[in-house]
Amino acid sequence: MPATTALRRTLAVLAALPLLTLAACGYGSESDGEDTAKVAEGAEKIDGLDSVRIGYFGNITHATPLVANQKGFFQKALGATEAKYATFNAGPSEIEALNSGSIDIGWIGPSPSINGYTKSGGKNLRIIGGSASGGVKLVVNPDKIKTLDDVKGKRIATPQLGNTQDVAFLNWIAEQGWKTDAQSGKGDVTVVRSDNKVTPDAYKSGSLDGAWVPEPTASKLVAEGGKVLLDESTLWPDKKFVITNIIVSQKFLTEHPKAVEAVLKASVDTNEWIQANPDQAKDAANKQLEKDTGKALPAEVLDPAWKSIQLTDDPLAATLDAQADHAVKAGLLDKPNLTGIYDLTLLNKVLKAKGEPAVDDAGLGAK
Fold this sequence. Notes:
This protein is α/β, with parallel strands linked by helices and 367 residues long. The chain is built from 14 helices and eleven strands. 38% of the residues lie in helices and 17% in strands.
């Protein structure tokens, strides 16, 4: 896959951050950030809005909104318009919330972004920015698998049929010349669809030989004696691929562009702060994780997971297009028309104001 402008222009790739456990707090769950989250005296509402509803997952691939919530960056950017939060543990539920108007803006992975866009005929969302790259690894039992060739014939977990990691692993299997049926998971490699919450226990019991999973699950498996056999980033140009996007409902983007711009500014400012304050940022993300999910990550999981994630304002559009192609090749997706899935106008306005170069949409922008 050739490197593209979108990849060459990756912005603000920041210090890696902690990955969090995937535990849903449900729609509308709110988090009490630090004092910085209070509305400043004399602040005005943006676009006349009482609130902006922001969705994200309780895991470190969503470190930007975790930190922005905890440190009050969203609230500062929104003035007297209240920042409200909802956390999710799966992409489909967040897309449903966006479609129903339960949230306005969300952080989400590439596969649900693609699925949500195509199933609506291109009418429900726009990707308006990037957030994170990396943090996906093939972790194996070193007693059973010592080389990549040894993966053949083994039982390897992915989080869910058709999810981002499942598609990536099926594509990697095909590139080895092996055959596995995408739907059943049966073939030269047995693909076991296993929720990230239960995969470490399944690995420990011996029912799995390894897993192609995101952080923090990968680091949890390593803590159980697993070995990282392959980091997915090594398979991509410049070792960067989208793992988290920022999306917005098209209706909200059209009606409230100033509010969307404010949230994007908060995202860019948060990434900049994380880069300048990596240790404080790691603590802030873990503190917000504990508030959102009821459990913080232990250091032996948090620290290696943190190092494997890179934050970026660039949505790495070319890699999303490639991920869609991988799903098509696996037979999990009809060839989609992704033209119009991106609108990076407001992000590039924010970046220009900070003296940063623009990012591009790999030809997939709204016309």
